[in-house]
Amino acid sequence: MTDETAARPTQGPNSAPDGRGRSSRAPGYAHVVDWIYDQIGSGQVPVGSRLPSIADIAAACNVGVKTARSAVEQLAERGVLRTRQGSGTVVISVPRELSDQYTGRSSGRRIVGALVPDLTFHETLSGIESVLAERDGRLMLTCSHYEYGSECDHLDSLVSDGAQGLLCAANLARWPEGDPSFDRLRDLPVPAVLLDRRLPDGMFPRIPAVLTDLEQAGFLATSHLIELDRSRVAGVFMAGRPGEPELRRGFRAALAARGVRPDPALELAAPDFDGTEVVDRLIDLDVDAVFVGGGHLAASVLSRLLLRRRKVPQEIAVAAYDARGGEVSEIPLTSVSPQRAAIGRLATTMLMDLLAHPRTAATGEFRVHPTLIARRSTTGVG
Known about the structure:
With 382 residues, the protein is α/β, with parallel strands linked by helices. The chain has three domains: 3-91, Arc Repressor Mutant, subunit A (Orthogonal Bundle); 99-207, Response regulator (Rossmann fold, 3-Layer(aba) Sandwich), CATH 3.40.50; 214-338 and 371-379, Rossmann fold, CATH 3.40.50.2300. The chain contains 13 helices and 14 strands.
């Protein structure tokens, strides 16, 4: 088979394209597609990253340059890749065949771009896709990989690649005060809705947003601990981190609502707590329950309590905000968890309404209540 033949697979009774757009009569072309999919699926070339050059792809797949270029061009037409002269080939979306967790249903006419930090946002993306499937929309995805300085560049690329509206989970809390990125975000030429993010207080004009009600999160977890007849309930917060003031307000509100006199000594806050330091202070304060405003820190606190031979929850009950994976801890962690799929659905519905009815669509900052998942770290059962 010549290189030119491989680059232009024929169609026939025995050469129908499969789910990856390949033909059984074009083994070289199919091998390139498989190789690119494997690079994306394995995480070696995640969304937002560049593929090797056409020549390198051809060498890796042992095919001609024309075959490699043809496969790349076809995947670019399908919205998986973006190729630009001088800047190489960038992965701009995850092929539906690789992750049925959040893709595979929407293929509509209206293109919605989404910026997320990484693919752990699959619950949010699932909610986005469910609305796009109903509203004639199609998702174009890019990941910032927590590179804060380039997030606006990612948004601009989505717009230049045809996105008519944007869903944005940029890490705004990491942008320095006065950063020109805020102006770039507000000046985007297409409508945008923030995903579990909001502009800093006092910054106008506002951008529509759907986010977790963090005061409710602090309130639910602390109320749960008080209802278990715990008398010395501490709160542990990462000072200066996104959402920390709201979690603290919820903690205090729960104490007030349950008639518990606040003790300032039981409200611990520092920019860089570690589990050992927290546990030392909890033991010194003789607490019998703690709400930790972060899942990773809560897991560390739990493990160090066990190392200190403290019984959880008999001696100290532990609840956390957003303890991802808490169900598989040595003692499963009680967690107040964001409803990420609901946030994705509401934000996408708002954006699609803005695109369809820009003058009359309802916009604003909508807060979604989190849910309390009680596990053994507070209940002793389950």
